[in-house]
TrEMBL record:
Keywords: Membrane, Transmembrane, Transmembrane helix. The chain crosses the membrane at residues 33-56, 68-91, 111-129, 149-169, 176-198, 210-227, 299-323. GO terms for cellular component: membrane. NCBIfam families: matE. This is Protein DETOXIFICATION. It is a multi-pass membrane protein. One of its GO terms (biological process) is xenobiotic detoxification by transmembrane export across the plasma membrane. Its main location: membrane. Pfam families: MatE. It is found in: Membrane.
Amino acid sequence: MDEATIEQPFLVPHPVQDAPAGVPAEVKKLLRLAVPLVASFILRNAVQMVSVMFVGHLGELQLAGVSLAASLANVTGFSFLAGMAGALDTLCGQAFGARQFHLLGIYKQRAMLVLTLACIPITLAWAFADQILLLIGQDRDVAAEAGEYARWLIPSLAAFVPLTCHTRFLQAQSLVVPVMASSGVTALTHVFVCYALVYKAGMGSKGAALSTAISYAINLTILALYVRLSSACKRTWTGFSAEAFAGLRDFAKLAVPSAMMVCLEWWSFELLVLLSGVLPNPKLETSVLSICINTATLLYMVPLGLGISISISKLGLLLWITLRTNWESEAIKAQERVIGSSVTTK
């Protein structure tokens, strides 16, 4: 065995002495992903916050009802759907790292199908939100207001599901700037849409819920046009495919545990708002705690963006390498190198 070959590092892409110099470069790469991600999360979260803020000027009852409905919607719907879409981080990251680009589009379509099916029980829960809230001891007036808001929030599911899948699809390719830009345009537009429906159209809290659905649809339209027209997605989006209907059960097996991880964390915040509704003076308690939770959620977006940036940049590729590498064969090669090295030195 040639000595020069033996001297080459095994399974290490760069010399060890170059590792410290690579740390600043890696930090810059992560920040280029993390900053747009954090901004997009904050802007997307601002849509519901703006709706609650506009309703807050209508009265204490309306604010309490919308706050309670928003928490119930997060617990029973948005958190579960966002968690299920997290399976795309694994699948799309793995496919992108393996350069199987066409699979990203198939996984996105498959996710939209599974998440759409999950919307059926969510729709039923929101349709009877007032009855559910009464069963857990909420104030009757607040529950009635929350139920009306939740019913008008149902159309938002039609846009939220594909929007979430498009976002994860683009994140897996490190295309985070378009996501941030679309979220910014949506947040700005939402202010005017919400104002027009809540005050000008006189719809009150119902207008706030409907404006959320419209804003999600605007965000989805922007991202869908980008995916369709941008050259950056030509390899990953090749059109609708019948392959998306295969493997739905396998996707669900990965999506449900992913959803539970998100839900258990998310619910710990939202349950506080629901519990505040059974305290004395529920209108005041629910409103105040909802404002606190929304503020805390904005701060939570920073570590969330950092975590996802690491996930989409490194873990997908590492997972593919781990799964595709024949480690038994690599161990034999390593053993041969060690034996060859010892023979050469003798």
